[in-house]
Amino acid sequence: MTDQWVALEPGADPAERARMLRRAHETFTSVGTVPRPVRPVVADSWWRSARAGVGPDGTASVELTDGDLGTYRAQHPLARVMPLFRELLGTFAADGEHLLAVCDAHGRLLWVEGHPATLRRADGMNFVPGARWSETAVGTNAPGTAVAVDRPVQVFAAEHFIRRVQPWTCAAAPVHDPRTGRVLGAVDITGGDELAHPHSLGFVQAVARAAEAQLALLAPPSRAPDTPLLRALGRDEAELLLDGRRLRLSRRHSEILVLLSRHPEGLTGDALLCALYADESVTPVTLRAELARLRRLLGPGLLASRPYQLTVVVESDATTVERRLEAGAVTAAAQGYSGPLLPGSQAPAIVRMRDRLADGLRSALIAHRDPDLLADWARAGWGEDDLAVWRALAAVRPTAPVRARLAALEAELAAPAGRATGRARGATYLQRPPV
């Protein structure tokens, strides 16, 4: 095997592979040696299962039922992403006569859903909500092994340690708490031999990553009541919420705080000077004077020197949008974007940050193809001349007003250079190649 985490290489004969694994399993359970065809991840799991005292003819035990199960599930963190699991895996499971299963960090099954006939078959081996399917309880199996090794894994046919599970194939991936990295449990797809394809492993891993991104949005890093909050999107002059005060900052002070909030490690005077001033004739004395005025405004102890840095974490609305974009939460990012970052600023570093954030969000919106999000961007002051967004909107919502506006923008782009009428910000977008 070239990839020990994939159960069956493309082109391999499932029936022949299953026969080889049955012989290997019998050899292990009878004489305690692992023949060569067994993948290292499975061999290691078999040894762990044997050391835990699991027998090949055992079965899973049901630990939670009825009200106890319902209460435990309702309080579990993965309950918040069950709608996502059902959306991404539920139809696939039902249509393919598979099962969607979710377990906790101890291998205890919390949800098992899917095709009715497959559910009835699964009942015969206690693959049901409330049953413990950890390696120490039932040996090698995808959800139990995934949480044991903290890796996505496939388990095919006789790779399962318990014989009554060997007609099945499953693929599972662990799901982590995005704040602490702690394993919360695993998401699993269980069914027939066709799930041994590498695509099923990649699919379930992608679903687990999507769940982690969703959890990050549902429970973002908490901001203590006294944590300063900087609002700089859509404002030429930022607003700082600090110790119950609402401070409106000058443009230069806004730029300084945005930069220092993005660099908690601090910036030297030279680095801050280059970030703020395109004019190389500006002296360090000018910068020190600005910082002295800002220090008096903020109060003692918040702004340190050598290097210049904030002594407390300052949350900003721009960082929130960036974090949501990185998590793939396009809708949440768009909702948090109230305009370009300090739109009137010409500080070189602020211009780069502003363009990077705007370009990242607009590209995500175009790729996402949500007509409402595209329309919100296109009708905002910063997007009303954005040709790429109007083209994307016309593709998903080809109403007469949208088509008319797109035609006008394309005519403007085609006009001779001296006759173009787009405003500077819109013209910047018009000059870009269509996305």
Automatic annotation (TrEMBL):
It comes from the Bacteria. Coiled coil: none annotated. Transmembrane segments: none annotated. Pfam families: GAF. Residues 244-310 form the OmpR/PhoB-type domain. Keywords: DNA-binding. SMART domains: Trans_reg_C. This is GAF domain-containing protein. It comes from Streptomyces pyxinicus.
